[in-house]
């Protein structure tokens, strides 16, 4: 007559055989556990850590209370920033809004004649005694000068149709000059490959003489007018001349 332990062992063997036929992978795992642990330990480990293991779908997600608090703080910061003092517009925003563009009704020569007179006074004061003598000192001053309001004429250009354009400079950008000619309109002249001619007339009440005429290579002016005043120029050979 079989003992109780023998019957229990046979039942376990039958259960294992049924599980092996039902799930070969589970049987392989149980065989591996049986090699390293006792039958009771192998069964317990398989049941707790493999068969009935808890599956966490979102283990790293914070609780809803934390998410709501974070969203509330973000909205509070945005509201405080909107209610605060607005900051200055960036260059991209100014270009998008067209704040720096010259309006069409302003494309008239007579509007900028007072600006040209201011530029003449500025150049007379900048050049001083070098107004007629010229030389390296005058060249250094002209290289860092501001040409807003100057009477410019295109004397040489890679594009022949631009030669002869003459008018007052209303905008001195990094790569182009916007010129309003005497007949009106707006001409956008690229600086690259273009030579501009300027002239500074002396004050008739105090001085006599011919106007001071000079030419500037546009390739050497491809700097923002605000940065040109602090730029240090060096004398070097120009292959385009």
TrEMBL record:
Low complexity bias: start-end ranges: 11-20
SMART domains the UniProt entry points to: POP4 (SM00538)
Pfam family, one: RNase_P-MRP_p29
GO cellular component, one term: nucleus
Keyword Membrane: no
Main location: nucleus
Residue segments, region Disordered: 1-27, 48-99
GO annotation terms (biological process): rRNA processing; tRNA 5'-leader removal
Family annotation (SUPFAM superfamilies): Rof/RNase P subunit-like
Signal peptide as annotated in the record: none
Start-end of Basic residues biased regions: 72-85
GO molecular function: endonuclease activity; hydrolase activity; ribonuclease P RNA binding
Keywords per UniProt: Cytoplasm, Endonuclease, Hydrolase, Nuclease, Nucleus, tRNA processing
Subcellular compartments: Nucleus
Family classification: Belongs to the eukaryotic/archaeal RNase P protein component 1 family.
HAMAP family according to UniProt: RNase_P_1
Protein name: Ribonuclease P protein subunit
Species for this entry: Ophiocordyceps camponoti-floridani
Record lineage: Eukaryota, Fungi, Dikarya, Ascomycota, Pezizomycotina
């Amino acid at each position: 007559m079989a003992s109780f332990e023998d019957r229990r062992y046979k039942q376990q063997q039958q259960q294992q055989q049924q599980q092996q036929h039902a799930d070969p992978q589970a049987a392989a795992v149980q065989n591996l556990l049986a090699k390293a642990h006792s039958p009771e330990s192998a069964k317990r480990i398989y049941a707790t850590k493999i068969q009935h293991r808890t599956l966490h779908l979102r283990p790293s997600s914070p609780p809803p209370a934390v998410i709501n608090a974070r969203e509330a703080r973000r909205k509070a910061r945005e509201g405080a920033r909107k209610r605060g003092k607005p900051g200055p517009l960036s260059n991209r925003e100014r270009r998008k809004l067209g704040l720096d563009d010259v309006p069409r009704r302003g494309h008239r020569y007579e509007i900028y004649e007072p600006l040209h007179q201011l530029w003449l006074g500025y150049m007379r004061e900048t050049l001083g005694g070098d107004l007629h003598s010229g030389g390296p000192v005058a060249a250094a001053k002209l290289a860092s000068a501001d040409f807003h309001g100057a009477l410019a004429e295109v004397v040489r250009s890679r594009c022949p149709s631009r030669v002869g354009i003459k008018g007052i400079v209303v905008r001195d950008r990094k790569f182009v000059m916007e010129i309003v000619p005497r007949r009106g309109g707006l001409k956008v002249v690229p600086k690259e490959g273009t030579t501009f001619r300027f002239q500074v007339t002396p004050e008739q009440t105090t001085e006599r003489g011919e106007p001071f005429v000079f030419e500037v290579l546009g390739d050497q002016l491809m700097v923002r007018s605000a940065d040109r005043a602090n730029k240090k120029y060096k004398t070097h050979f120009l292959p385009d001349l």
